[in-house]
Design goal:
Blueprint (H helix, E strand, L loop, with lengths): L1 H11 L5 E4 L12 E3 L3 H6 L11 E8 L5 E12 L2 H15 L2 E4 L3 E7 L4 E6 L3 E4 L3 E2 L6 H5 L11 E9 L6 E7 L2 E7 L5 E8 H5 L4 H7 L5 H9 L1 E2 L5 E3 L10 E2 L2 E3 L14 H21 L4 H30 L3 H13 L1 H11 L5
Parallel strand pairs: 1-5, 3-11, 9-17
Antiparallel strand pairs: 2-4, 3-4, 6-7, 7-8, 10-13, 10-14, 10-15, 11-12, 12-13, 16-17
Length: 362
C-alpha cells in the first residue's frame, strides 16, 4: 500500500516511477482491513478515498478477554473498513491511469547500489533496471530482506497471521478485538456486506495441533464470543490466507540507500489497528521528500537523513508502544489475562492504548 500511494503521488508530480509487484491485482493479503480516520483528509484531498465501495464507517470498539467478558467504548477518531483486495486494486488502477509503469507477476531478486555511478540496479526474474532512487515497499518480509541481510531476518518470529472473509451478523460501526490464549482476533466489516476475521496466534499453539482448524476449535473457541462467531458465519474463502514469521522488531529505515516504507520500515502490532493508516502516511512521507529533493536539488544524504528523522518523529513512539503491548499480550497466560482484564475493566486503559498508537489527521 505504501508503494502504491508513493507511486501515484510521484507520477502526479512528474517523477517517472516503475512499480514492481510479484502478484497480479486484485489479490488478498493477511490484514485487519481497518483504516484509521487520521488518513481521511489526505485521501480525500488527493482523490484517493474509495467512495465507490461505500466502506462502512467504524466508531465503536468491543474488547473481550479469553473468558468472553467484554467491554465497549467509542472511538474518538474512528475509521472505515475496506478489503486489501478492493483498495489495493483501486490504487493500482489509479497508478496505471496517472502514468506509473506497473509490472505485475514480476519479482525483485536483488537491488544493488553503485556508489561510483550513484545509481541502482534492480534485478527481477525477467529484467534488469536502473534507477536513481529505490523505495522498498515490499511488506512484512520478502526475498529482498534476505538478500540485504536485514537484522530482523536473523531472528525467528513466533507469530502466524490468519485471515478469512465471512458473512455474519456484525454491526457496520463496530470493530471487535477478541482475545484467546496465545493471540487475538480482530473482526470488522468491509465492502459488499462482508466481514474480515483476522487473527494472530503464537507458533507454539499451531505446532501443538494438526492444523489451523484444530487450533481454532481448541484454542480460539475458549472465548465463547469467538466460538459463536465461527459457528454462525458463512466462510467465503476455500482456505484462509496465512503468513508466517510476522516480526515486530525494529527495522532499518534506509539500508544500502534504499528508502524503506510501510511494513518494510516497521510493523505495528495488529491489535493496534493502525497498520494500513501508517502505510498510507509512510507512502505520503517518502513521496513528499523525494518531490522536495528534486524541486530543491537536494542531495541523497539530505533525502535519507530527512526521511529517517521525519519517519521516527511520526512513527517510532507508536511502534514502541505496539511492541510493549504485544509483549504483554503474547507473554505468559497470566500476563495476557492481566493485561486484557485491565483494559476490559478499566476502559480508560484501552483509550490510552488507542491514543498512543494513533496520530492526528494529516
Amino acid at each position: 500500500m505504501a508503494g502504491l500511494i508513493a507511486s501515484i503521488r510521484l507520477v502526479r508530480a512528474g517523477v517517472s516511477c516503475t512499480l514492481i509487484e510479484k502478484k497480479k491485482y486484485p489479490f488478498h493479503r493477511v490484514c485487519g482491513e481497518y483504516i484509521s480516520n487520521e488518513t481521511l483528509p489526505f485521501l480525500k484531498r488527493e482523490s484517493l478515498f474509495p467512495d465507490q465501495f461505500q466502506p462502512p464507517a467504524i466508531n465503536r470498539l468491543q474488547l473481550s478477554s479469553v473468558s468472553g467478558k467484554s467491554t465497549e467504548l467509542l472511538l474518538d477518531l474512528g475509521g472505515f473498513g475496506i478489503s486489501r483486495y478492493a483498495f489495493d486494486n483501486f490504487l493500482y488502477q489509479l497508478a496505471m491511469r496517472d502514468g506509473a509503469q506497473v509490472l505485475l507477476e514480476e519479482e525483485v531478486k536483488e537491488v544493488m547500489y553503485a556508489k561510483s555511478e550513484d545509481i541502482f540496479s534492480v534485478k527481477t526474474n525477467r529484467n534488469l533496471f536502473t534507477s536513481s532512487l529505490v523505495i522498498g515497499a515490499h511488506g512484512k518480509r520478502s526475498r529482498i530482506d534476505s538478500s540485504l541481510k536485514r537484522k530482523f531476518m536473523q531472528k525467528h518470529s513466533p507469530y502466524v497471521g490468519i485471515k478469512y472473509h465471512i458473512r455474519t451478523n456484525h454491526p457496520d460501526d463496530l470493530i471487535a478485538l477478541h482475545n484467546f490464549n496465545g493471540g487475538y482476533c480482530g473482526i470488522s466489516n468491509v465492502e459488499d456486506g462482508k466481514t474480515t476475521l483476522c487473527y494472530l496466534v503464537h507458533r507454539d499453539q499451531v505446532k501443538r495441533f494438526k492444523g489451523i482448524h484444530e487450533v481454532e476449535e481448541t484454542v480460539l473457541f475458549q472465548n465463547p464470543l469467538l466460538k459463536s462467531i465461527f459457528h454462525s458465519s458463512d466462510f467465503l474463502f476455500d482456505k484462509p490466507e496465512t503468513i508466517n514469521e510476522i516480526s515486530f522488531e525494529e527495522k532499518e529505515l534506509v539500508l544500502n540507500h534504499i528508502l524503506m516504507a510501510g511494513d518494510a520500515a516497521g510493523m505495528i502490532a495488529p491489535l493496534c489497528g493502525n497498520g494500513m493508516a501508517m502505510a498510507i502516511q509512510s507512502g505520503k512521507l517518502v513521496s513528499d521528500l523525494i518531490i522536495q529533493a528534486r524541486n530543491e536539488n537536494r542531495t541523497r544524504v539530505w533525502l535519507e537523513s530527512s526521511y529517517a528523522k521525519q519517519w521516527n518523529s511520526i512513527f517510532s513512539n507508536r511502534l514502541r508502544t505496539g511492541r510493549l503491548i504485544q509483549h504483554y499480550l503474547s507473554g505468559s497466560e497470566w500476563s495476557s489475562r492481566l493485561s486484557i482484564g485491565l483494559a476490559v475493566n478499566l476502559p480508560w486503559v484501552a483509550r490510552q492504548i488507542i491514543k498512543r498508537t494513533h496520530g492526528p489527521e494529516f
